[in-house]
Specification:
Number of helices: 12
Bound molecules: S-adenosylmethionine
Oligomer: single chain
Mean pLDDT: 96
Strand content: 5-15%
Shape: globular
Helix content: 40-55%
Strand order of the largest sheet: 3-2-1-4-5-7-6
Order of helices and strands: EHEHEHEHHHHHHHEHEHE
Distance between the termini: 21 Å
Largest sheet: 7 strands, mixed
Structural class: alpha/beta
Amino acid sequence: MGAVAIDCTLGQAGHARLILERITPGGRLLGIDRDPAAIEAGRRTLSDYHSAATLVQGSFGDLGELAAAAGFAGADMILFDFGISSAQLDEPERGFSFRADGPLDMRMDPKSPLTAAKIVNEYDVAEIQRILRQYGEERWAHRIAQFIVARRPLRTTRDLVQAVEAAIPRRAWPRDLHVATRTFQGLRIAVNDELGQIEQGLKAALQILNPGGRMATISFHSLEDRLVKSFFIVESKDCICPPQQPVCTCGHRASLRIVTKHVVRPSAEEVAANPRARSSRLRVAQKI
Ligand SMILES: C[S@@+](CC[C@H](N)C(=O)[O-])C[C@H]1O[C@@H](n2cnc3c(N)ncnc32)[C@H](O)[C@@H]1O
């Protein structure tokens, strides 16, 4: 009771509602999402909680500024549930899905300037390849980038799926993933600067957490999880000097205690009830 929570990825407000159930009366929650549609839906979903829930549109990369402006100087719990929501994925107009035809958009914030269409139609082969390799971990990145450039202009998600299908030899199509999964992931991460925002968001969360407060992250792929894991490891150490250095000169002090020694994965029952949770990985750390 009386706890202060920040949900940095409000989405469809499922977590926010569960948190509010536990911290009210007395507690309050700040809900943040880049997507104005999530904020609008969240206002309806959380309307029972009135002033206990403050919802703001913005990126958690700006968490420090957003929290200060909303009057949340400190927090006892901060949650990040990375990636896109089911509502975004299921709306063809947003361009996130390779299963439905839609515009090549992929922006979480419809006001941000970069779209997937701009990347596929204007960037050179080398830059598209880098995005697909680095953010999509796609080993066919070079060929896909060449096919994309040869087929310009690409107008819809179907055009993109067809370029990927043509670029990857049929025998090399993954068995457990849609053939365009990695391409879509890479573009989405680039369009929304997802990894840069995570790095900034984690640092800001550490500043805002009250001593004893906890931050929890839910990642959906190894790029996100790796950032969290290394952030937690570095911030839980008293010294981050290179191992060969005989005397510490960094002056770094641990500010986190890792609560989940190993990443937590969903149970088989949870995956059966919610198949989209199958690749989720939870990590929790506590501010010292
Ligand atoms: C997996 S969903 C969250 C689902 C949510 N936990 C729920 O219970 O419904 C991820 C949400 O985070 C938002 N998001 C992703 N990156 C963000 C960022 N940098 N800043 C703010 N919101 C972000 C997306 O717009 C999306 O609505």
